[in-house]
UniProtKB/TrEMBL annotation, chain A:
Keywords: 4Fe-4S, Iron, Iron-sulfur, Metal-binding. GO terms for molecular function: 4 iron, 4 sulfur cluster binding; metal ion binding. It comes from Jannaschia helgolandensis. This is Fe-S-cluster-containing dehydrogenase component. Residues 12-42, 77-108, 110-139 form the 4Fe-4S ferredoxin-type domain.
From TrEMBL, chain B:
The keyword Transmembrane applies. Keywords: Membrane, Transmembrane, Transmembrane helix. GO terms for molecular function: dimethyl sulfoxide reductase activity. The keyword Membrane applies. It comes from the Bacteria. The chain crosses the membrane at residues 7-31, 37-59, 80-100, 106-127, 139-156, 162-178, 228-249, 255-274. GO terms for cellular component: dimethyl sulfoxide reductase complex; plasma membrane. One of its GO terms (biological process) is anaerobic electron transport chain. This is DMSO reductase anchor subunit.
Amino acid sequence: MTALPATTARKLGLVIDLDTCVGCHACVTACKGWNTQNYGAPLSDQDAYGDASGTFLNRIHSFQVQPEPVNDVPQLAQTTHFPKSCLHCEDAPCVTVCPTGASYKRAEDGIVLVNEDACMGCGLCAWACPYGAREMDQAAGVMKKCTLCVDRIYNENLEEIDRQPACVRTCPAGARHFGDLADPDSHVSKLVAERGGLDLMPEQGTKPVNQYLPPRPRDTIQPVMSGDEDILAPFLAPVAEEPKGFLAWVDRALEKL
Amino acid sequence: MQPAPSVIIFSTLSGAGFGLLFFLGIGFPVVSGGVAFVFYLIAFGLAVGGLLASVFHLGNKKNAWKSFSQWRTSWLSREGWFAVVGLLVMGLYAFLQVFFDTTVFTLGFTGAALSLATVFATSMIYAQLRTIPRWNQPATPGFFLSASLAGGALLSGNVTTAVIFLIILGAITVFHWWKGDQRFAEAGSTIETATQLKGRVSLWEKPHTGQNYLTHEMIFHVARKHAVKLRVIAILAMSVVPVVLLVLFPVHHVLAAIAVLSYLAGVFVQRWLFFAEAEHVVGLYYGAHARA
Ligand code: SF4
Ligand code: SF4
Ligand code: SF4
Protein backbone atom coordinates (compact mmCIF):
# COMPACT_ATOMS: atom_id res chain seq x y z
CA MET A 1 0.00 0.00 0.00
CA THR A 2 1.20 3.47 -0.79
CA ALA A 3 0.05 4.67 2.59
CA LEU A 4 2.81 6.43 4.48
CA PRO A 5 4.19 4.82 7.64
CA ALA A 6 2.95 6.70 10.73
CA THR A 7 6.50 7.01 12.01
CA THR A 8 9.84 5.72 10.85
CA ALA A 9 12.39 4.27 13.25
CA ARG A 10 15.16 6.29 11.68
CA LYS A 11 15.13 9.26 9.32
CA LEU A 12 18.07 8.82 7.03
CA GLY A 13 18.77 11.83 4.88
CA LEU A 14 21.22 14.42 3.69
CA VAL A 15 22.28 17.74 5.12
CA ILE A 16 23.47 20.07 2.37
CA ASP A 17 25.71 23.00 3.19
CA LEU A 18 24.97 25.91 0.86
CA ASP A 19 27.90 27.80 2.34
CA THR A 20 30.40 25.19 1.27
CA CYS A 21 29.09 23.93 -2.07
CA VAL A 22 31.28 25.23 -4.87
CA GLY A 23 28.98 24.12 -7.67
CA CYS A 24 31.43 21.67 -9.22
CA HIS A 25 28.78 19.08 -10.19
CA ALA A 26 30.99 16.23 -8.94
CA CYS A 27 28.05 14.79 -6.97
CA VAL A 28 25.89 14.94 -10.10
CA THR A 29 28.40 12.84 -12.00
CA ALA A 30 29.01 10.43 -9.12
CA CYS A 31 25.27 9.96 -8.64
CA LYS A 32 24.67 9.32 -12.32
CA GLY A 33 27.61 6.94 -12.47
CA TRP A 34 26.61 4.85 -9.48
CA ASN A 35 22.93 4.73 -10.29
CA THR A 36 23.50 3.86 -13.94
CA GLN A 37 25.66 0.87 -13.09
CA ASN A 38 23.70 -0.45 -10.12
CA TYR A 39 20.08 -0.75 -8.94
CA GLY A 40 17.31 -0.52 -11.56
CA ALA A 41 17.10 0.85 -15.07
CA PRO A 42 20.17 2.88 -16.11
CA LEU A 43 19.81 6.67 -16.21
CA SER A 44 19.53 7.23 -19.95
CA ASP A 45 20.57 10.20 -22.06
CA GLN A 46 18.76 11.32 -25.16
CA ASP A 47 20.59 12.84 -28.13
CA ALA A 48 23.76 13.10 -26.05
CA TYR A 49 25.77 14.83 -28.79
CA GLY A 50 22.98 17.09 -30.02
CA ASP A 51 20.15 18.74 -28.14
CA ALA A 52 21.06 16.71 -25.07
CA SER A 53 18.75 15.82 -22.22
CA GLY A 54 18.77 12.94 -19.77
CA THR A 55 17.77 11.57 -16.40
CA PHE A 56 19.51 12.81 -13.26
CA LEU A 57 18.67 12.12 -9.64
CA ASN A 58 20.63 15.07 -8.37
CA ARG A 59 20.98 18.47 -10.03
CA ILE A 60 22.81 21.66 -9.11
CA HIS A 61 20.98 24.93 -9.58
CA SER A 62 22.77 28.24 -9.03
CA PHE A 63 21.06 31.32 -7.66
CA GLN A 64 22.01 34.94 -7.39
CA VAL A 65 21.07 36.58 -4.12
CA GLN A 66 20.87 40.33 -3.86
CA PRO A 67 21.03 41.12 -0.13
CA GLU A 68 19.07 44.05 1.28
CA PRO A 69 21.15 47.26 1.74
CA VAL A 70 22.80 47.54 5.18
CA ASN A 71 22.57 51.08 6.66
CA ASP A 72 21.58 52.30 3.18
CA VAL A 73 24.81 50.88 1.78
CA PRO A 74 24.03 48.66 -1.21
CA GLN A 75 25.46 45.15 -0.87
CA LEU A 76 27.09 43.09 -3.58
CA ALA A 77 25.16 40.17 -5.02
CA GLN A 78 26.23 36.66 -3.99
CA THR A 79 26.11 33.35 -5.83
CA THR A 80 24.78 30.26 -4.11
CA HIS A 81 25.12 26.82 -5.65
CA PHE A 82 22.15 24.70 -4.79
CA PRO A 83 22.31 20.89 -5.02
CA LYS A 84 18.89 19.27 -5.12
CA SER A 85 17.95 15.61 -4.83
CA CYS A 86 14.99 13.84 -3.18
CA LEU A 87 14.38 15.16 0.34
CA HIS A 88 12.83 11.86 1.54
CA CYS A 89 9.87 13.79 2.95
CA GLU A 90 7.98 12.54 6.00
CA ASP A 91 4.64 13.47 4.41
CA ALA A 92 5.68 12.51 0.91
CA PRO A 93 2.85 13.44 -1.50
CA CYS A 94 4.59 11.47 -4.27
CA VAL A 95 3.91 8.21 -2.42
CA THR A 96 0.20 8.57 -1.68
CA VAL A 97 -0.77 9.51 -5.24
CA CYS A 98 0.85 6.38 -6.74
CA PRO A 99 -1.85 4.04 -8.10
CA THR A 100 0.31 0.94 -8.52
CA GLY A 101 2.05 0.75 -5.17
CA ALA A 102 5.41 1.22 -6.88
CA SER A 103 6.27 4.26 -4.74
CA TYR A 104 6.75 3.66 -1.05
CA LYS A 105 8.43 5.00 2.06
CA ARG A 106 10.32 2.52 4.20
CA ALA A 107 9.21 2.26 7.82
CA GLU A 108 12.66 1.23 9.04
CA ASP A 109 14.72 4.19 7.77
CA GLY A 110 12.35 6.57 5.97
CA ILE A 111 13.92 6.17 2.52
CA VAL A 112 11.45 6.88 -0.31
CA LEU A 113 11.86 4.41 -3.18
CA VAL A 114 10.26 3.32 -6.46
CA ASN A 115 9.81 -0.36 -7.23
CA GLU A 116 10.44 -0.21 -10.96
CA ASP A 117 8.87 -3.64 -11.54
CA ALA A 118 5.50 -2.24 -10.47
CA CYS A 119 5.70 1.29 -11.92
CA MET A 120 3.45 1.97 -14.94
CA GLY A 121 5.09 5.26 -15.83
CA CYS A 122 2.06 7.50 -15.32
CA GLY A 123 4.22 10.32 -13.95
CA LEU A 124 1.70 11.40 -11.34
CA CYS A 125 4.27 11.18 -8.52
CA ALA A 126 6.56 13.60 -10.37
CA TRP A 127 3.63 16.03 -10.58
CA ALA A 128 3.03 15.64 -6.85
CA CYS A 129 6.64 16.41 -5.84
CA PRO A 130 7.22 20.14 -5.30
CA TYR A 131 10.97 19.84 -5.64
CA GLY A 132 11.40 18.22 -9.04
CA ALA A 133 13.09 15.23 -7.43
CA ARG A 134 11.51 12.59 -9.67
CA GLU A 135 12.24 12.16 -13.35
CA MET A 136 10.71 9.64 -15.74
CA ASP A 137 13.42 7.87 -17.64
CA GLN A 138 12.66 8.42 -21.31
CA ALA A 139 14.22 5.12 -22.41
CA ALA A 140 12.86 2.80 -19.70
CA GLY A 141 9.50 4.55 -19.18
CA VAL A 142 9.70 4.16 -15.41
CA MET A 143 10.10 6.70 -12.65
CA LYS A 144 13.61 7.34 -11.30
CA LYS A 145 14.52 9.10 -8.10
CA CYS A 146 17.29 9.35 -5.52
CA THR A 147 17.52 6.07 -3.59
CA LEU A 148 19.72 7.61 -0.89
CA CYS A 149 22.13 5.04 -2.34
CA VAL A 150 20.34 2.30 -0.43
CA ASP A 151 22.58 -0.14 -2.32
CA ARG A 152 25.72 1.48 -0.84
CA ILE A 153 24.84 2.45 2.70
CA TYR A 154 24.01 -1.13 3.78
CA ASN A 155 26.41 -2.83 1.36
CA GLU A 156 28.79 -5.10 3.26
CA ASN A 157 30.80 -5.74 0.10
CA LEU A 158 32.03 -2.17 0.18
CA GLU A 159 34.75 -0.83 2.45
CA GLU A 160 33.20 0.78 5.50
CA ILE A 161 34.28 4.23 4.33
CA ASP A 162 32.30 3.76 1.10
CA ARG A 163 29.06 2.85 2.87
CA GLN A 164 27.60 6.28 2.29
CA PRO A 165 25.86 7.86 -0.69
CA ALA A 166 27.99 8.34 -3.79
CA CYS A 167 27.34 12.07 -3.83
CA VAL A 168 28.45 12.46 -0.20
CA ARG A 169 31.53 10.30 -0.72
CA THR A 170 32.54 12.29 -3.80
CA CYS A 171 31.92 15.88 -2.79
CA PRO A 172 35.36 17.54 -2.75
CA ALA A 173 34.13 20.42 -0.62
CA GLY A 174 32.44 18.32 2.06
CA ALA A 175 29.15 20.08 1.38
CA ARG A 176 26.96 16.97 1.62
CA HIS A 177 26.49 15.07 4.88
CA PHE A 178 24.62 11.81 5.39
CA GLY A 179 23.15 10.50 8.62
CA ASP A 180 20.11 9.82 10.81
CA LEU A 181 18.15 13.00 11.41
CA ALA A 182 15.92 11.25 13.99
CA ASP A 183 18.91 10.82 16.30
CA PRO A 184 19.64 14.15 18.04
CA ASP A 185 23.23 13.06 18.71
CA SER A 186 24.11 12.22 15.11
CA HIS A 187 26.61 14.51 13.42
CA VAL A 188 23.98 15.63 10.92
CA SER A 189 21.51 16.59 13.65
CA LYS A 190 24.26 18.54 15.41
CA LEU A 191 25.08 20.38 12.19
CA VAL A 192 21.43 21.25 11.72
CA ALA A 193 21.17 22.56 15.28
CA GLU A 194 24.41 24.53 15.06
CA ARG A 195 23.85 26.13 11.66
CA GLY A 196 20.07 26.47 11.65
CA GLY A 197 19.08 23.87 9.06
CA LEU A 198 16.04 24.76 6.96
CA ASP A 199 13.14 22.97 5.20
CA LEU A 200 12.62 23.82 1.53
CA MET A 201 9.09 25.09 0.70
CA PRO A 202 7.66 24.40 4.19
CA GLU A 203 4.31 25.77 2.95
CA GLN A 204 3.89 22.64 0.84
CA GLY A 205 3.53 20.58 4.02
CA THR A 206 5.86 17.79 2.90
CA LYS A 207 8.05 17.83 6.04
CA PRO A 208 11.34 17.16 4.23
CA VAL A 209 13.93 15.06 6.04
CA ASN A 210 16.87 16.57 4.12
CA GLN A 211 17.99 19.88 5.57
CA TYR A 212 19.75 22.85 3.98
CA LEU A 213 22.32 24.90 5.87
CA PRO A 214 22.09 28.57 4.81
CA PRO A 215 25.17 30.47 3.59
CA ARG A 216 27.03 32.19 6.42
CA PRO A 217 26.91 36.00 6.44
CA ARG A 218 29.55 37.63 4.28
CA ASP A 219 32.86 38.54 6.02
CA THR A 220 33.50 42.21 6.67
CA ILE A 221 36.81 43.02 5.01
CA GLN A 222 38.75 46.12 6.01
CA PRO A 223 39.05 48.81 3.34
CA VAL A 224 42.06 48.13 1.11
CA MET A 225 45.43 49.61 2.10
CA SER A 226 44.38 51.45 5.19
CA GLY A 227 46.47 51.19 8.33
CA ASP A 228 50.08 50.25 8.65
CA GLU A 229 49.96 46.52 8.01
CA ASP A 230 51.61 46.91 4.61
CA ILE A 231 54.61 49.18 4.27
CA LEU A 232 54.40 49.03 0.49
CA ALA A 233 50.83 50.26 0.53
CA PRO A 234 51.68 53.92 -0.15
CA PHE A 235 53.63 52.93 -3.27
CA LEU A 236 50.74 50.95 -4.60
CA ALA A 237 48.18 53.67 -4.05
CA PRO A 238 46.77 54.97 -7.32
CA VAL A 239 48.53 58.06 -8.66
CA ALA A 240 47.31 60.90 -10.87
CA GLU A 241 43.59 60.29 -10.70
CA GLU A 242 42.92 63.36 -12.86
CA PRO A 243 44.68 63.63 -16.21
CA LYS A 244 46.99 66.65 -16.58
CA GLY A 245 48.59 68.63 -19.44
CA PHE A 246 48.01 67.35 -22.95
CA LEU A 247 45.86 64.41 -21.84
CA ALA A 248 43.69 66.76 -19.86
CA TRP A 249 43.24 68.92 -22.93
CA VAL A 250 42.30 65.88 -25.07
CA ASP A 251 39.92 64.79 -22.37
CA ARG A 252 38.23 68.21 -22.26
CA ALA A 253 38.13 68.45 -26.04
CA LEU A 254 36.50 65.05 -26.35
CA GLU A 255 34.00 65.89 -23.67
CA LYS A 256 32.88 68.95 -25.62
CA LEU A 257 32.18 67.02 -28.81
CA MET B 1 1.96 21.81 -17.48
CA GLN B 2 2.48 20.17 -20.85
CA PRO B 3 -0.95 19.67 -22.46
CA ALA B 4 -0.61 16.05 -23.60
CA PRO B 5 -3.17 15.39 -26.39
CA SER B 6 -3.96 11.88 -25.11
CA VAL B 7 -4.98 13.16 -21.68
CA ILE B 8 -7.02 16.04 -23.12
CA ILE B 9 -8.87 13.71 -25.50
CA PHE B 10 -9.43 11.28 -22.66
CA SER B 11 -10.94 13.75 -20.27
CA THR B 12 -13.13 15.46 -22.88
CA LEU B 13 -14.57 12.33 -24.48
CA SER B 14 -14.86 10.10 -21.46
CA GLY B 15 -16.40 12.94 -19.47
CA ALA B 16 -19.19 13.23 -22.05
CA GLY B 17 -19.49 9.43 -22.30
CA PHE B 18 -19.90 8.92 -18.56
CA GLY B 19 -22.34 11.85 -18.51
CA LEU B 20 -24.47 10.09 -21.13
CA LEU B 21 -24.29 6.83 -19.16
CA PHE B 22 -25.47 8.74 -16.09
CA PHE B 23 -28.63 9.97 -17.81
CA LEU B 24 -29.34 6.59 -19.41
CA GLY B 25 -28.81 4.96 -16.02
CA ILE B 26 -31.35 7.14 -14.24
CA GLY B 27 -33.83 6.56 -17.05
CA PHE B 28 -33.78 9.91 -18.86
CA PRO B 29 -34.59 8.56 -21.39
CA VAL B 30 -35.62 4.94 -20.82
CA VAL B 31 -34.57 3.28 -24.07
CA SER B 32 -34.80 -0.17 -25.61
CA GLY B 33 -33.98 -2.11 -28.76
CA GLY B 34 -32.21 -0.41 -31.66
CA VAL B 35 -32.45 3.09 -30.18
CA ALA B 36 -30.86 1.83 -26.99
CA PHE B 37 -28.15 0.13 -29.00
CA VAL B 38 -27.18 3.40 -30.73
CA PHE B 39 -27.24 5.36 -27.46
CA TYR B 40 -25.02 2.83 -25.69
CA LEU B 41 -22.69 2.55 -28.66
CA ILE B 42 -22.06 6.30 -28.43
CA ALA B 43 -21.78 6.29 -24.63
CA PHE B 44 -19.43 3.30 -24.39
CA GLY B 45 -17.46 4.48 -27.41
CA LEU B 46 -16.77 7.84 -25.78
CA ALA B 47 -16.10 6.49 -22.30
CA VAL B 48 -13.95 3.51 -23.30
CA GLY B 49 -12.23 5.36 -26.15
CA GLY B 50 -11.29 8.10 -23.74
CA LEU B 51 -9.94 5.59 -21.21
CA LEU B 52 -7.84 3.91 -23.89
CA ALA B 53 -6.41 7.27 -24.97
CA SER B 54 -5.23 7.84 -21.40
CA VAL B 55 -3.38 4.50 -21.42
CA PHE B 56 -1.28 5.80 -24.34
CA HIS B 57 0.11 8.36 -21.93
CA LEU B 58 1.81 5.69 -19.80
CA GLY B 59 5.53 5.01 -20.01
CA ASN B 60 5.20 1.35 -19.01
CA LYS B 61 1.79 0.12 -20.18
CA LYS B 62 2.31 -3.50 -19.16
CA ASN B 63 1.95 -2.52 -15.49
CA ALA B 64 -1.32 -0.61 -16.00
CA TRP B 65 -3.33 -3.40 -14.33
CA LYS B 66 -1.39 -2.82 -11.11
CA SER B 67 -3.08 0.57 -10.81
CA PHE B 68 -6.11 -1.17 -9.28
CA SER B 69 -4.13 -2.00 -6.16
CA GLN B 70 -3.92 1.33 -4.32
CA TRP B 71 -7.57 2.43 -4.08
CA ARG B 72 -7.15 3.26 -0.41
CA THR B 73 -4.77 6.16 -1.03
CA SER B 74 -4.68 7.01 -4.73
CA TRP B 75 -7.37 8.84 -6.72
CA LEU B 76 -5.93 7.45 -9.94
CA SER B 77 -6.47 3.94 -8.62
CA ARG B 78 -10.03 4.79 -7.51
CA GLU B 79 -10.75 6.23 -10.95
CA GLY B 80 -9.81 2.88 -12.48
CA TRP B 81 -12.12 0.97 -10.13
CA PHE B 82 -15.11 3.29 -10.58
CA ALA B 83 -14.65 3.23 -14.35
CA VAL B 84 -14.37 -0.53 -14.72
CA VAL B 85 -17.14 -1.46 -12.26
CA GLY B 86 -19.33 1.35 -13.61
CA LEU B 87 -18.89 0.17 -17.19
CA LEU B 88 -19.65 -3.45 -16.23
CA VAL B 89 -22.82 -2.51 -14.36
CA MET B 90 -23.98 -0.22 -17.16
CA GLY B 91 -23.07 -2.94 -19.67
CA LEU B 92 -25.44 -5.37 -17.99
CA TYR B 93 -28.16 -2.69 -17.70
CA ALA B 94 -27.71 -1.86 -21.41
CA PHE B 95 -27.72 -5.53 -22.42
CA LEU B 96 -31.07 -6.07 -20.70
CA GLN B 97 -32.53 -2.93 -22.29
CA VAL B 98 -31.27 -3.65 -25.81
CA PHE B 99 -32.08 -7.34 -26.04
CA PHE B 100 -34.83 -7.97 -23.48
CA ASP B 101 -36.54 -4.59 -23.33
CA THR B 102 -36.14 -4.79 -19.55
CA THR B 103 -35.11 -1.86 -17.39
CA VAL B 104 -33.62 -2.76 -14.01
CA PHE B 105 -33.37 0.51 -12.14
CA THR B 106 -31.23 -0.89 -9.34
CA LEU B 107 -28.56 -1.55 -11.94
CA GLY B 108 -29.16 1.77 -13.69
CA PHE B 109 -28.89 3.89 -10.55
CA THR B 110 -25.78 2.05 -9.39
CA GLY B 111 -24.18 2.48 -12.81
CA ALA B 112 -25.17 6.16 -12.93
CA ALA B 113 -23.60 6.78 -9.51
CA LEU B 114 -20.41 4.96 -10.51
CA SER B 115 -20.24 6.95 -13.78
CA LEU B 116 -20.32 10.23 -11.88
CA ALA B 117 -17.90 8.85 -9.31
CA THR B 118 -15.46 8.11 -12.15
CA VAL B 119 -15.58 11.73 -13.31
CA PHE B 120 -15.19 12.93 -9.74
CA ALA B 121 -12.15 10.69 -9.21
CA THR B 122 -10.58 11.98 -12.43
CA SER B 123 -11.04 15.54 -11.24
CA MET B 124 -9.54 14.73 -7.84
CA ILE B 125 -6.36 13.45 -9.48
CA TYR B 126 -5.78 17.07 -10.47
CA ALA B 127 -7.47 18.87 -7.59
CA GLN B 128 -5.44 17.05 -4.92
CA LEU B 129 -2.08 18.39 -6.17
CA ARG B 130 -0.84 21.18 -3.93
CA THR B 131 2.12 21.58 -6.25
CA ILE B 132 -0.18 23.00 -8.95
CA PRO B 133 -2.14 25.69 -7.13
CA ARG B 134 -4.40 26.49 -10.10
CA TRP B 135 -5.82 22.96 -9.97
CA ASN B 136 -5.84 22.72 -6.19
CA GLN B 137 -9.30 24.29 -5.66
CA PRO B 138 -12.88 22.99 -5.22
CA ALA B 139 -13.97 24.42 -8.58
CA THR B 140 -11.84 21.78 -10.34
CA PRO B 141 -14.20 18.89 -9.49
CA GLY B 142 -17.01 21.39 -10.04
CA PHE B 143 -16.27 21.92 -13.69
CA PHE B 144 -15.33 18.31 -14.45
CA LEU B 145 -18.71 17.20 -13.06
CA SER B 146 -20.73 19.97 -14.67
CA ALA B 147 -19.00 19.43 -18.03
CA SER B 148 -19.82 15.74 -17.85
CA LEU B 149 -23.45 16.33 -16.84
CA ALA B 150 -23.91 19.02 -19.51
CA GLY B 151 -22.44 16.74 -22.18
CA GLY B 152 -24.53 13.80 -21.00
CA ALA B 153 -27.73 15.86 -21.00
CA LEU B 154 -26.95 17.17 -24.50
CA LEU B 155 -26.25 13.72 -25.92
CA SER B 156 -29.28 12.15 -24.26
CA GLY B 157 -31.60 14.86 -25.58
CA ASN B 158 -32.61 16.29 -22.20
CA VAL B 159 -32.82 19.80 -23.61
CA THR B 160 -33.87 21.77 -20.53
CA THR B 161 -31.45 19.95 -18.24
CA ALA B 162 -28.70 20.50 -20.81
CA VAL B 163 -29.36 24.24 -20.88
CA ILE B 164 -29.21 24.39 -17.08
CA PHE B 165 -25.95 22.40 -16.83
CA LEU B 166 -24.35 24.32 -19.72
CA ILE B 167 -25.02 27.58 -17.88
CA ILE B 168 -23.67 26.12 -14.61
CA LEU B 169 -20.61 24.83 -16.50
CA GLY B 170 -19.95 28.28 -17.96
CA ALA B 171 -20.26 29.92 -14.56
CA ILE B 172 -17.99 27.42 -12.79
CA THR B 173 -15.40 27.64 -15.57
CA VAL B 174 -15.25 31.43 -15.37
CA PHE B 175 -14.94 31.19 -11.58
CA HIS B 176 -12.19 28.58 -11.96
CA TRP B 177 -10.21 30.91 -14.23
CA TRP B 178 -10.70 33.88 -11.94
CA LYS B 179 -9.74 31.94 -8.79
CA GLY B 180 -7.01 30.08 -10.62
CA ASP B 181 -5.26 33.31 -11.52
CA GLN B 182 -4.83 34.02 -7.80
CA ARG B 183 -4.03 30.54 -6.57
CA PHE B 184 -0.27 30.64 -7.08
CA ALA B 185 0.05 33.73 -4.93
CA GLU B 186 -2.33 32.24 -2.34
CA ALA B 187 -0.28 29.05 -2.11
CA GLY B 188 2.63 31.26 -1.05
CA SER B 189 5.51 29.48 -2.78
CA THR B 190 8.18 31.82 -4.09
CA ILE B 191 11.78 31.44 -5.17
CA GLU B 192 12.67 32.55 -1.62
CA THR B 193 10.64 29.80 0.08
CA ALA B 194 11.98 27.31 -2.47
CA THR B 195 15.63 28.16 -1.77
CA GLN B 196 15.31 29.54 1.80
CA LEU B 197 17.91 32.16 0.79
CA LYS B 198 17.66 35.63 2.32
CA GLY B 199 17.44 38.62 0.00
CA ARG B 200 16.18 39.00 -3.54
CA VAL B 201 16.78 35.65 -5.22
CA SER B 202 16.95 34.98 -8.95
CA LEU B 203 18.10 32.02 -11.00
CA TRP B 204 21.68 32.51 -12.11
CA GLU B 205 22.34 29.23 -13.87
CA LYS B 206 20.18 26.21 -14.67
CA PRO B 207 21.49 22.75 -13.76
CA HIS B 208 21.96 21.87 -17.42
CA THR B 209 22.02 23.84 -20.64
CA GLY B 210 19.39 21.61 -22.24
CA GLN B 211 15.82 20.69 -21.37
CA ASN B 212 14.89 17.78 -19.14
CA TYR B 213 11.80 15.76 -18.24
CA LEU B 214 10.80 18.34 -15.64
CA THR B 215 11.14 21.41 -17.80
CA HIS B 216 9.41 19.66 -20.68
CA GLU B 217 6.55 18.25 -18.62
CA MET B 218 5.94 20.96 -16.05
CA ILE B 219 7.29 24.27 -17.27
CA PHE B 220 5.22 24.90 -20.36
CA HIS B 221 5.61 28.30 -21.99
CA VAL B 222 4.24 28.16 -25.50
CA ALA B 223 1.12 30.06 -26.46
CA ARG B 224 0.12 31.18 -22.98
CA LYS B 225 0.02 34.60 -24.56
CA HIS B 226 -3.17 33.58 -26.38
CA ALA B 227 -4.83 32.57 -23.13
CA VAL B 228 -7.43 35.34 -23.07
CA LYS B 229 -8.54 34.72 -26.66
CA LEU B 230 -8.70 30.99 -26.02
CA ARG B 231 -10.77 31.53 -22.88
CA VAL B 232 -13.30 33.53 -24.91
CA ILE B 233 -13.38 30.84 -27.61
CA ALA B 234 -13.81 28.10 -25.00
CA ILE B 235 -16.69 29.76 -23.17
CA LEU B 236 -18.48 30.66 -26.43
CA ALA B 237 -18.15 27.19 -27.94
CA MET B 238 -18.70 25.22 -24.74
CA SER B 239 -21.59 27.16 -23.19
CA VAL B 240 -22.97 30.13 -25.10
CA VAL B 241 -23.42 28.63 -28.59
CA PRO B 242 -25.09 25.39 -27.40
CA VAL B 243 -27.37 27.27 -25.00
CA VAL B 244 -28.48 29.71 -27.72
CA LEU B 245 -29.07 26.90 -30.21
CA LEU B 246 -31.04 24.82 -27.72
CA VAL B 247 -33.18 27.69 -26.50
CA LEU B 248 -34.01 28.96 -29.99
CA PHE B 249 -34.40 25.59 -31.76
CA PRO B 250 -35.14 22.98 -29.08
CA VAL B 251 -36.22 20.19 -31.44
CA HIS B 252 -34.00 20.67 -34.50
CA HIS B 253 -31.79 17.61 -34.98
CA VAL B 254 -29.05 19.11 -37.16
CA LEU B 255 -28.71 22.12 -34.89
CA ALA B 256 -28.62 19.81 -31.86
CA ALA B 257 -25.71 17.99 -33.49
CA ILE B 258 -23.97 21.32 -34.04
CA ALA B 259 -24.58 22.15 -30.37
CA VAL B 260 -22.90 18.88 -29.37
CA LEU B 261 -19.90 19.48 -31.63
CA SER B 262 -19.56 23.05 -30.44
CA TYR B 263 -19.69 21.83 -26.83
CA LEU B 264 -16.99 19.21 -27.45
CA ALA B 265 -14.74 21.71 -29.22
CA GLY B 266 -15.21 24.20 -26.37
CA VAL B 267 -14.43 21.62 -23.68
CA PHE B 268 -11.38 20.57 -25.69
CA VAL B 269 -10.05 24.15 -25.70
CA GLN B 270 -10.91 24.54 -22.02
CA ARG B 271 -9.01 21.34 -21.14
CA TRP B 272 -6.03 22.48 -23.20
CA LEU B 273 -5.99 25.70 -21.21
CA PHE B 274 -6.44 23.76 -17.96
CA PHE B 275 -3.04 22.21 -18.63
CA ALA B 276 -1.27 25.01 -20.49
CA GLU B 277 -2.09 27.61 -17.84
CA ALA B 278 -1.26 25.41 -14.85
CA GLU B 279 1.97 26.44 -13.15
CA HIS B 280 3.90 23.87 -11.13
CA VAL B 281 5.88 25.16 -8.14
CA VAL B 282 8.99 23.29 -9.37
CA GLY B 283 9.25 26.05 -11.98
CA LEU B 284 10.60 28.24 -9.18
CA TYR B 285 13.84 26.24 -9.24
CA TYR B 286 14.09 26.87 -12.98
CA GLY B 287 13.53 30.62 -12.90
CA ALA B 288 9.86 30.45 -13.95
CA HIS B 289 7.03 32.45 -12.34
CA ALA B 290 9.38 35.37 -11.57
CA ARG B 291 7.65 38.42 -10.16
CA ALA B 292 7.27 41.21 -12.67
S1 SF4 C 1 11.42 15.29 -2.39
FE1 SF4 C 1 9.78 14.84 -3.82
S2 SF4 C 1 10.17 12.73 -4.46
FE2 SF4 C 1 11.36 13.05 -2.59
S3 SF4 C 1 10.00 12.35 -0.93
FE3 SF4 C 1 9.71 14.57 -1.14
S4 SF4 C 1 7.93 14.74 -2.50
FE4 SF4 C 1 8.72 12.65 -2.74
S1 SF4 D 1 5.02 6.86 -12.34
FE1 SF4 D 1 5.23 4.86 -11.35
S2 SF4 D 1 5.83 5.36 -9.25
FE2 SF4 D 1 5.03 7.24 -10.13
S3 SF4 D 1 2.84 7.28 -9.56
FE3 SF4 D 1 2.96 6.31 -11.60
S4 SF4 D 1 3.09 4.11 -11.16
FE4 SF4 D 1 3.60 5.18 -9.23
S1 SF4 E 1 22.11 9.70 -2.28
FE1 SF4 E 1 22.78 8.49 -4.08
S2 SF4 E 1 20.98 8.53 -5.43
FE2 SF4 E 1 20.69 10.19 -3.94
S3 SF4 E 1 21.57 12.05 -4.89
FE3 SF4 E 1 23.22 11.10 -3.68
S4 SF4 E 1 24.29 9.77 -5.13
FE4 SF4 E 1 22.31 10.26 -6.06
